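ok here's Lytic polysaccharide monooxygenase, seq below lol
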Amino acid sequence: MNQAIAQTQLKHGRVISPASRGAVAIDLGLLGGWQVNEMEGGKNFPALAAGPFPQPFDTDADSVAPPADGYILSGGKTDARDCVNYTHAEMSTKLARPFTWPLLNVDPGQTFKVSWVYTAPHTTRGYRWLITKDGWDPQQRITRAQLEAAPFFEDFYPQVPYYSHADELKAKVDHEVKLPANKKGHHVIVLMWIVANTGNAFYQAFDVDFK
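and the structure came out like this:
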Protein backbone atom coordinates (compact mmCIF):
# COMPACT_ATOMS: atom_id res chain seq x y z
CA MET A 1 0.00 0.00 0.00
CA ASN A 2 1.21 3.49 -0.84
CA GLN A 3 2.61 5.09 2.31
CA ALA A 4 0.69 8.35 1.80
CA ILE A 5 -2.57 6.42 1.45
CA ALA A 6 -1.74 4.33 4.51
CA GLN A 7 -1.23 7.46 6.58
CA THR A 8 -4.59 8.94 5.57
CA GLN A 9 -6.33 5.69 6.52
CA LEU A 10 -4.83 5.35 10.00
CA LYS A 11 -7.67 6.78 12.02
CA HIS A 12 -10.17 6.31 14.79
CA GLY A 13 -9.53 3.31 17.05
CA ARG A 14 -9.81 -0.35 17.96
CA VAL A 15 -9.52 -2.65 20.94
CA ILE A 16 -6.06 -4.20 21.18
CA SER A 17 -6.72 -6.39 24.25
CA PRO A 18 -8.37 -8.86 24.48
CA ALA A 19 -8.55 -10.17 20.93
CA SER A 20 -11.64 -8.96 19.06
CA ARG A 21 -12.96 -10.50 15.86
CA GLY A 22 -11.19 -7.67 14.09
CA ALA A 23 -7.89 -8.61 15.70
CA VAL A 24 -8.39 -12.23 14.62
CA ALA A 25 -9.06 -11.01 11.06
CA ILE A 26 -5.83 -8.99 11.16
CA ASP A 27 -3.89 -12.05 12.32
CA LEU A 28 -5.41 -14.07 9.47
CA GLY A 29 -4.30 -11.44 6.94
CA LEU A 30 -7.89 -10.60 5.98
CA LEU A 31 -7.83 -7.02 7.28
CA GLY A 32 -5.35 -4.26 8.04
CA GLY A 33 -5.31 -2.42 11.33
CA TRP A 34 -6.67 0.73 9.71
CA GLN A 35 -9.77 -1.17 8.58
CA VAL A 36 -10.50 -2.40 12.10
CA ASN A 37 -9.92 1.15 13.38
CA GLU A 38 -12.71 2.34 11.10
CA MET A 39 -15.59 -0.07 11.76
CA GLU A 40 -17.95 2.81 12.36
CA GLY A 41 -21.68 3.02 11.91
CA GLY A 42 -24.69 4.80 13.33
CA LYS A 43 -24.54 5.26 17.10
CA ASN A 44 -28.27 4.77 17.76
CA PHE A 45 -28.00 0.97 17.57
CA PRO A 46 -30.09 -1.09 18.25
CA ALA A 47 -32.47 1.49 16.79
CA LEU A 48 -33.23 0.93 13.11
CA ALA A 49 -33.16 4.50 11.84
CA ALA A 50 -30.98 7.59 11.88
CA GLY A 51 -32.03 10.38 14.18
CA PRO A 52 -31.40 12.21 17.46
CA PHE A 53 -29.50 10.45 20.21
CA PRO A 54 -31.86 9.83 23.14
CA GLN A 55 -32.23 12.27 26.01
CA PRO A 56 -30.44 13.55 27.99
CA PHE A 57 -27.88 13.48 25.16
CA ASP A 58 -30.14 14.79 22.40
CA THR A 59 -27.84 17.82 21.95
CA ASP A 60 -25.16 15.43 20.62
CA ALA A 61 -24.84 15.08 16.86
CA ASP A 62 -27.67 13.05 15.35
CA SER A 63 -26.96 9.40 14.58
CA VAL A 64 -26.51 8.30 11.01
CA ALA A 65 -28.27 5.07 10.02
CA PRO A 66 -27.27 2.22 12.36
CA PRO A 67 -25.89 -1.04 10.92
CA ALA A 68 -28.29 -3.39 9.17
CA ASP A 69 -28.88 -6.87 10.55
CA GLY A 70 -26.11 -9.22 9.47
CA TYR A 71 -23.58 -6.38 9.30
CA ILE A 72 -23.64 -5.27 12.93
CA LEU A 73 -20.20 -6.47 13.99
CA SER A 74 -18.47 -4.45 11.25
CA GLY A 75 -20.42 -1.30 12.08
CA GLY A 76 -22.38 -1.75 8.87
CA LYS A 77 -19.33 -2.03 6.62
CA THR A 78 -19.97 -4.40 3.69
CA ASP A 79 -16.49 -4.36 2.12
CA ALA A 80 -13.61 -6.59 3.28
CA ARG A 81 -14.61 -5.81 6.87
CA ASP A 82 -17.74 -7.90 6.37
CA CYS A 83 -15.58 -10.89 7.34
CA VAL A 84 -16.06 -10.09 11.03
CA ASN A 85 -19.78 -10.80 10.55
CA TYR A 86 -19.10 -14.23 9.05
CA THR A 87 -20.37 -17.41 10.62
CA HIS A 88 -17.99 -20.32 11.20
CA ALA A 89 -19.15 -21.81 7.88
CA GLU A 90 -18.61 -18.59 5.94
CA MET A 91 -15.13 -18.19 7.41
CA SER A 92 -14.32 -21.82 6.62
CA THR A 93 -15.29 -21.18 2.99
CA LYS A 94 -13.29 -17.93 2.92
CA LEU A 95 -10.15 -19.59 4.31
CA ALA A 96 -10.66 -22.92 2.49
CA ARG A 97 -10.17 -24.77 5.77
CA PRO A 98 -12.24 -25.52 8.87
CA PHE A 99 -12.51 -22.46 11.11
CA THR A 100 -14.25 -21.42 14.29
CA TRP A 101 -13.91 -18.01 15.92
CA PRO A 102 -11.47 -18.30 18.85
CA LEU A 103 -13.16 -18.00 22.24
CA LEU A 104 -12.08 -15.89 25.20
CA ASN A 105 -12.60 -17.87 28.39
CA VAL A 106 -14.64 -15.88 30.92
CA ASP A 107 -16.60 -16.48 34.10
CA PRO A 108 -20.17 -15.28 34.67
CA GLY A 109 -20.13 -11.95 36.47
CA GLN A 110 -16.40 -11.39 36.06
CA THR A 111 -14.76 -8.06 35.30
CA PHE A 112 -13.95 -7.85 31.59
CA LYS A 113 -11.13 -5.40 30.85
CA VAL A 114 -10.42 -3.88 27.44
CA SER A 115 -7.65 -1.66 26.14
CA TRP A 116 -7.94 0.56 23.07
CA VAL A 117 -5.54 2.27 20.72
CA TYR A 118 -6.87 5.48 19.19
CA THR A 119 -5.49 7.05 16.05
CA ALA A 120 -7.86 10.01 15.88
CA PRO A 121 -9.36 11.87 18.83
CA HIS A 122 -13.14 12.11 19.08
CA THR A 123 -15.32 13.80 21.65
CA THR A 124 -16.66 10.73 23.43
CA ARG A 125 -20.15 10.24 24.83
CA GLY A 126 -19.37 6.80 26.17
CA TYR A 127 -19.56 3.07 25.64
CA ARG A 128 -22.43 0.61 25.19
CA TRP A 129 -22.16 -3.16 25.71
CA LEU A 130 -24.52 -5.72 24.19
CA ILE A 131 -24.58 -9.52 24.22
CA THR A 132 -26.30 -12.38 22.44
CA LYS A 133 -29.45 -13.96 23.85
CA ASP A 134 -29.55 -17.37 25.46
CA GLY A 135 -30.15 -19.90 22.69
CA TRP A 136 -28.76 -17.68 19.92
CA ASP A 137 -27.69 -19.53 16.79
CA PRO A 138 -23.98 -19.24 15.92
CA GLN A 139 -24.78 -20.68 12.47
CA GLN A 140 -26.55 -17.39 11.67
CA ARG A 141 -25.06 -13.92 11.38
CA ILE A 142 -25.65 -11.56 14.30
CA THR A 143 -28.94 -9.69 13.99
CA ARG A 144 -30.94 -7.60 16.44
CA ALA A 145 -33.04 -10.69 17.08
CA GLN A 146 -29.87 -12.57 18.13
CA LEU A 147 -28.99 -9.92 20.74
CA GLU A 148 -30.57 -9.12 24.08
CA ALA A 149 -32.99 -6.24 23.58
CA ALA A 150 -31.23 -3.97 26.08
CA PRO A 151 -27.51 -3.34 26.61
CA PHE A 152 -26.11 -5.12 29.65
CA PHE A 153 -24.08 -2.01 30.49
CA GLU A 154 -23.68 1.60 29.43
CA ASP A 155 -20.86 3.91 30.51
CA PHE A 156 -21.74 7.45 29.45
CA TYR A 157 -20.25 10.79 30.40
CA PRO A 158 -23.07 12.93 31.87
CA GLN A 159 -21.82 16.36 30.72
CA VAL A 160 -24.05 18.18 28.24
CA PRO A 161 -23.90 19.84 25.82
CA TYR A 162 -20.80 18.13 24.48
CA TYR A 163 -19.42 21.30 22.88
CA SER A 164 -19.12 22.95 26.30
CA HIS A 165 -17.22 19.96 27.75
CA ALA A 166 -15.09 18.67 24.90
CA ASP A 167 -11.94 18.64 27.04
CA GLU A 168 -13.64 16.35 29.57
CA LEU A 169 -15.22 13.87 27.13
CA LYS A 170 -12.13 11.79 26.50
CA ALA A 171 -11.95 8.33 24.98
CA LYS A 172 -10.87 5.74 27.56
CA VAL A 173 -7.73 3.76 26.83
CA ASP A 174 -8.50 1.20 29.53
CA HIS A 175 -11.93 0.45 30.89
CA GLU A 176 -13.91 -2.49 32.18
CA VAL A 177 -17.36 -3.94 32.62
CA LYS A 178 -18.95 -6.60 34.78
CA LEU A 179 -20.17 -9.40 32.54
CA PRO A 180 -23.67 -10.84 32.97
CA ALA A 181 -23.87 -13.40 35.75
CA ASN A 182 -26.41 -15.71 34.07
CA LYS A 183 -24.72 -16.71 30.80
CA LYS A 184 -23.27 -20.08 29.80
CA GLY A 185 -21.24 -21.20 26.81
CA HIS A 186 -20.43 -19.28 23.62
CA HIS A 187 -21.74 -15.73 23.32
CA VAL A 188 -20.84 -12.68 21.25
CA ILE A 189 -20.27 -9.32 22.94
CA VAL A 190 -20.67 -6.11 20.96
CA LEU A 191 -18.88 -3.03 22.31
CA MET A 192 -19.67 0.41 20.89
CA TRP A 193 -17.48 3.50 21.36
CA ILE A 194 -20.04 6.27 20.93
CA VAL A 195 -18.92 9.66 19.66
CA ALA A 196 -20.71 12.84 20.77
CA ASN A 197 -19.82 15.20 17.92
CA THR A 198 -20.44 12.86 14.96
CA GLY A 199 -23.23 10.47 14.03
CA ASN A 200 -21.14 7.36 14.53
CA ALA A 201 -20.01 4.73 16.96
CA PHE A 202 -17.09 2.35 16.49
CA TYR A 203 -18.00 -1.33 16.78
CA GLN A 204 -15.87 -4.12 18.26
CA ALA A 205 -16.98 -7.72 18.79
CA PHE A 206 -15.70 -10.54 21.00
CA ASP A 207 -16.45 -14.25 21.10
CA VAL A 208 -16.48 -15.45 24.70
CA ASP A 209 -17.07 -18.77 26.43
CA PHE A 210 -18.76 -18.53 29.83
CA LYS A 211 -17.51 -21.37 32.02
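fwiw The CA atoms of residues 60 and 162 lie 6 Å apart. kinda neat tbh
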